[in-house]
Amino acid sequence: MDNSKALKIIENIKKVIIGKDDVIERVLITILAKGHLLIEDIPGVGKTTLAKALAKSMDLSYKRVQFTPDLMPSDIIGINIYDKESGSFSFKKGPIFNHIFLADEINRTSPKTQSSLLQAMEEGEVSTEEGDYILEKPFIVLATQNPLEYQGTFPLPEAQLDRFLMCLSIGYPDKSYEIEILKNHQSIKSLEDVEAVASREDILNMQAEVESITAKDSIL
């Protein structure tokens, strides 16, 4: 497989995620393996910046939703709206209809709302009263949760955890990298140096190549 595109994506994200090369590589591995990612980490280490940089680097649509106790499944999937002129209902798509969906602090919402992600993560589609809707590929859920604050949270059930291919933390950078971040915080915050270095078609082709890799019996 030609890994030049993958290397370009990694180098591009490194412009705003400083000193975390191993994390970036693992995130890209998850995406190319058609998986979803759970990031367990404290606030302020760049989780949202990472998601935005990924979307920009791969020219994919992106949406972030802050999960709260009062969040409803319809706030994620969408809702049927009555049209007076036609006398019928039309479906207004929710934020999950994006290539990269960031579920921020996923464990702060109820199990009912958490479960609204299950079908989308497993089957790549969502079902409503009006029918089934296929999510455009690639579709990646990046979810975060704070491992230090559990008051008022709802632990993810096993069925939900099973939908994530990988769980990792970003962590604070080393001192030398922290100094670099302070020196360049304006450009890092604005993501102005991050541009599209791959397309949706590139990502789909790379995923297909990964899926076609043959493993010998000894590896299996």
CATH architecture: 3-Layer(aba) Sandwich
What would CATH call the class?
Answer: Alpha Beta
Q: In total, how many domains does the architecture comprise?
A: 1
Helical residues, percent: 25-40%
Structural class: alpha/beta
Shape: globular
Radius of gyration in whole Å, from Cα?
A: 19 Å
Question: Order of strands in the sheet with the most strands?
Answer: 2-5-8-1-9
Report how far apart the termini are. Answer: 21 Å
Poorly predicted runs are none
Biggest pleated-sheet summary: 5 strands, parallel
Structure annotation, total helices? 10
CATH topology: Rossmann fold
Descriptive key words:
220 residues; alpha/beta; Rossmann fold; 5-stranded parallel sheet; two-stranded antiparallel sheet; 9 strands
List the helices and strands and how they pair.
Elements: H1 4-13, H2 21-32, E1 37-40, H3 47-57, E2 62-66, H4 74-77, E3 78-83, E4 88-93, E5 100-104, H5 111-114, H6 118-123, E6 125-128, E7 131-134, E8 140-145, H7 158-161, E9 166-168, H8 175-183, H9 185-190, H10 200-211
Parallel strand pairs: 1-8, 1-9, 2-5, 5-8
Antiparallel strand pairs: 3-4, 6-7
Could you characterize the architecture of this molecule?
The structure is a single chain. This protein has 220 residues and is an alpha/beta fold. The protein has one domain (4-211): Rossmann fold (3-Layer(aba) Sandwich), CATH 3.40.50. 35% of the residues lie in helices and 20% in strands. It has ten helices and nine strands. The protein has helices spanning 4-13, 21-32, 47-57, 74-77, 111-114, 118-123, 158-161, 175-183, 185-190, 200-211, and strands at residues 37-40, 62-66, 78-83, 88-93, 100-104, 125-128, 131-134, 140-145, 166-168. It has a five-stranded parallel beta sheet, with helices on one face. Strands 3-4 form a two-stranded antiparallel sheet. Strand 3 (78-83) and strand 4 form a beta hairpin. The longest helix is centred in the N-terminal third of the chain and has 12 residues, at 21-32. The mean pLDDT is 88.
